[in-house]
Amino acid sequence: TTAIPTRAAPISLTEGVSDASGVLTTAVGGAFSLPPQLSTLVPPPPAPTGGPGPSPEAEEETTTTLITTTTVTTVHSPVLCNNNISEAEGLLEAPEYGGGTFFGGLDCTYSVSVYLGYGVEIRVERLNLSKEEALSIEGLEEDRRFLLANETLMAEGQVIRSPTNHVAVRFQTYRATNPGAFRLRYQALCGGEISEPAGVILSPDWPQNYGKGQDCVWGIHVQEDRRVLLEIEILNIRRSDALTVYDGDDLTARVLGQYMGVHQRFNLFSSANDVTLQFQSDSNDPVFSLSQGFIIHFKEVPRNDTCPALPEVPNGWKTSSHPDLIRGTVVTYQCEPGYDISGSDILTCQWDLSWSNAPPTCEKILNCADPGEIANGVRRASDPRFPIGSHVQYSCNEGYTLEGSRILTCYNRDTGTPKWSDRIPKCVLKYEPCLNPGVPENGYQTLYKHHYQAGEALRFFCYEGFELIGEVTITCVPGHPSQWTSQPPLCKVAYEELLDDRKLEVTQTTDPSHQMEGGNIALAIFLPIILVILLIGGIYIYYTKFQGKSLFGFSFPASHSYSPITVESDFNNPLYEAGDTREYEVSI
């Protein structure tokens, strides 16, 4: 007999359906193992002819066949409930349950996009989900997704912020009836992360006026081999508010610039591929006034390590501190004679590879410089701009007299700037001059003239061989009349030569060699004299002492030796008897 395959009895829906988290699945025979009750053993195929015949029991086993049954079930896909939202603020809620059945559950995606340069702030107002339900919030940046929060990290009242302007909220439930509930309120948040190659950043609530208390941070990121060009088209904020640009990816980077108030259009370059902008408005300003805000265009540009080349200036030239216009290079502009520089003459290549100022120009000079006012006087100008051909007339106040040209004229020069015809005059006190005090005898004076104005000085000198006695310089002191500070000096004969000779003698005397020589000469002179004096003295003593005679025939009073006189012989002396009393005086 031949086994005829038979179809297995159909399996009830409840037996063929597997409830896996509320999702209907399909079991297909052959792909999955079958239940035991659906399997029937069948005998193997008959043996080849020509062999020994099987026994009756073996023949009965070969007539048994295996019946394979395929079970087919119905699949229900989840109900899709996607929504794209582009409003600046709004409400995201779970689909309302109307009492029906969601075969396959729900898979809802809410795509929220706000304008470029803003982030998204989401506040969780309600959250009631079962364990079989999922809720996730993702930030979208180009083709990249990053998780911000899911149902396990959320709680009512929580605030979730996305740095990008595009977020996706996905809700999944596998419950056929009575799904969970949630309510999320979102709004565009100033600031955010931008990875576009170009775009626009607007102030909060643009084109309306921004409010106070704003604190917005934008991060702009371009390709690594590029840098960022910021074109500030409009910048009109209050002076108490600030827009700060950082040369990097956070607020600790180097500051490219900080701006307050109103500014004209200008550009900024970053040194690398990241730049950060921060806008802050004062929340405590008691006199808050509305301001327009700002518009900033950004785009990526090729990276360069030098500043842009500067143009040549007509009628002038420029010099550079470095052959390559690298960071820190200083370029100085100068103009030819007759031209004046208009603008900044020194430009510096900054860290953002932009120049500190715009290139200047050289303009033809058609005016003289202001000659200035004078003290104790006034001036009258024919034209306050002092063009070529104009005049300036000076005059002094009462009691002062003018020294210098009274009228100055501005005239042109072909190879230089216009120039005044003379120096500016000055006003001096009007005093009577001092008369020349005269020239000292044997002397002379400098700047000889008849009259000297107040304040002038006069110097005196003597001829050679004469010395000056008195003040060398005298000054005319103003007054009525003016007077000299002192009388003129005198010139007297100088005795310096004689003094010099005496000094020479003293010097020679104090010299040891000269002292020895002088001593020998003195000894040779005075020794014979001393010997002669001693000889004369000896002769004198000899004659006066021993001979009783005068050396020169004169009688000298001398002390005599008297013998003792007795009483009897006192009057026997003839000298006393004669009463002769003579006195002799000898002078030597």
Reconstruct the topology from this structure.
Blueprint: H1 13-16, H2 56-61, E1 79-80, E2 83-85, E3 89-93, E4 106-113, E5 118-128, E6 133-141, E7 144-150, E8 159-162, E9 166-173, E10 181-190, E11 192-194, E12 198-202, E13 215-221, E14 226-236, E15 242-246, E16 255-259, E17 262-263, E18 266-269, E19 274-280, E20 293-302, E21 316-320, E22 330-335, E23 339-342, E24 346-348, E25 361-364, E26 377-381, E27 391-396, E28 400-403, E29 407-411, E30 419-420, E31 426-429, E32 434-435, E33 443-445, E34 451-452, E35 457-462, E36 466-469, E37 473-477, E38 483-484, E39 490-493, H3 496-510, H4 512-547, H5 574-578
Parallel strand pairs: 1-4, 2-4, 11-13
Antiparallel strand pairs: 3-10, 4-9, 5-8, 5-10, 6-7, 6-9, 12-20, 13-19, 14-17, 14-18, 14-20, 15-16, 15-19, 21-22, 22-24, 23-25, 26-27, 27-29, 28-31, 29-30, 32-34, 33-35, 35-37, 36-39, 37-38
